[in-house]
Design goal:
Elements (H helix, E strand, L loop, with lengths): L1 H13 L1 H14 L5 E2 L6 H24 L2 E8 L5 E5 L5 E6 L9 E3 L8 E6 L10 E4 L23 H23 L5 E4 L7 H10 L2 E3 L5 E3 L5 H9 L17 E4 L10 H16 L15 H11 L3 H26 L6 E2 L11 H9 L5 H12 L9 H22 L2
Helix pairs in contact: 1-4, 2-7, 4-7
């Protein structure tokens, strides 16, 4: 469980593909900023919202997919203004437990006190102890089904499935790098195949047992026999000099063998493709919008094609759900800070697009920006059926002059 906790932090804070998914969600949901509909904000308060509330929502998008809920608290600035803050990743741990009647000082539960299960947040040692931490649910809590899994036990998270895939992919990449390091390192492997005869065995036993000789004083002293390793050491090590020769003479009965080549047994491309599809499926982003290494140079082409056909209605429905959740979260934050529940926020899930061709109009129609009545008007304009009378200033002046002259003559005839 501890390993999966730190792997989840690594995934959601550093992993490139997940960061791309989060960036796509942020750019689409928060491209047009935040607007208040309950009451019109002052320009100063609008700048305050753009400066502090937009980064808060960016962190909320990451937290809702990382934990299944958004843990936040109210922070007071030096100026005295109060703003919301997301709890930093790694500063707390969370579990799913039945709600208890007696709430501990270090436990922060969600507002659903009467539910069967709820999220419980416990701050880690060394973190700033807060009096109250608010929890806004994104995914309803369920019992930790991965806790006793035979495959891999993980912490409760909406993207806990990709933790094992990420670990396997990283292990395969490490094995491939070790194999490449072995294959790219120069080494010489020498084999020894001496010629032996039938009578050599008896002579070897005698000399290994009684290797002694007489010195100049007539005493028997043990003598260490010269081995093949000693001869190789004499050739390579004992005769060191300034200029290292590039050619060596091997001892007798020695041959150079080829070093074994290590080949990875796991398909890295398949693991990367599977991991990318799993991440996109769990977060809800079309895979065509995410470019990765296995695209083999086709990233820009796929991203251009994704801008025209990747935003389907399912993806737009996911963006609508995220924006609705963010509006509810902002209303809760505003009522907590300012004690006012009559304020509503508006967040438009639409990317900033420039109308350059008919394909851009089709994109706007697919993501739900263009309504059917707008489509009828655009079709009328493009087909040339929606024509308006042109206003000619000269003709209008002549008509007005003629009408004025006739009215004047009629008046003179009636009133002499």
């Amino acid at each position: 469980m501890d390993e999966s906790y730190y792997l989840l932090l690594e995934l959601c804070c550093n992993e490139p593909i997940i960061q791309q998914c989060f960036n796509v969600l942020e750019n689409i949901c928060l491209a047009h900023g935040i607007s208040m509909t309950g009451k019109k904000p002052t320009p100063r308060f609008q700048r305050h919202i753009d400066m502090h509330y937009v980064p808060f929502l960016r962190g909320a998008i990451r937290a809702m997919h990382m934990y299944g809920f958004v843990p936040w608290r109210v922070m007071t600035l030096d100026s005295g203004d109060k703003i919301p803050e997301i709890l930093p990743p790694g500063s707390f741990r969370w579990t799913i437990e039945p709600p208890s009647k007696e709430k501990k000082d270090t436990d922060f539960t969600s507002k659903f006190k009467d539910a069967m299960l709820c999220y419980v947040v416990r701050l880690n040692a060394g973190a700033k102890q807060e009096e109250h931490v608010n929890i806004t649910q994104w995914t309803p809590p369920n019992s930790n089904v991965c806790e006793r899994s035979v495959m891999y036990a993980t912490v409760p998270s909406p993207i806990s499935y990709v933790i094992e895939s990420y670990k396997q992919m990283q292990s395969a990449l490490q094995r491939q790098s070790h194999a490449d390091a072995w294959n790219c390192t120069a080494r010489v492997i020498v084999s020894n195949e001496p010629k032996e005869f039938a009578h050599d065995q008896h002579r070897r036993e005698i000399f290994t047992t009684f290797h002694q000789h007489l010195d100049q004083f007539g005493k028997l002293n043990p003598h260490k026999p010269s081995t093949t390793e000693d001869k190789v050491g004499e050739l390579f090590e004992d005769h060191s000099q300034n200029h290292t020769p590039s050619v060596y003479t091997l001892p007798a009965h020695h041959h150079i063998d080829n070093a074994p080549q290590l080949q990875p047994c796991v398909d890295i491309t398949y693991l990367q493709s599977k991991y990318k599809n799993d991440v996109c499926s769990l977060i809800g982003v079309p895979p065509e919008l995410i470019s990765s290494v296995q695209d083999k140079g086709e990233g820009p082409k796929q991203s251009a094609a994704a801008s025209s056909s990747g935003m389907n209605r399912i993806f737009q429905a996911k963006m609508q759900a995220i924006c609705f959740y963010l509006k509810t979260l902002l209303a809760e934050v505003y009522s907590t800070i300012y004690k006012d529940e009559n304020v509503e926020f508006d967040i438009t899930p639409m990317p900033r697009l420039e109308i350059t061709c008919m394909e851009d109009l089709r994109i706007l129609h697919e993501i739900g920006v263009l309504q059917p009545e707008h489509t009828v008007d655009l079709a009328s304009v493009l087909l040339g059926k929606l024509k308006k009378a042109k206003h000619n200033p000269t003709q209008a002046f002549e008509q007005n002059s003629t009408a004025g002259a006739s009215q004047k003559s009629g008046a003179e005839s009636r009133h002499p």
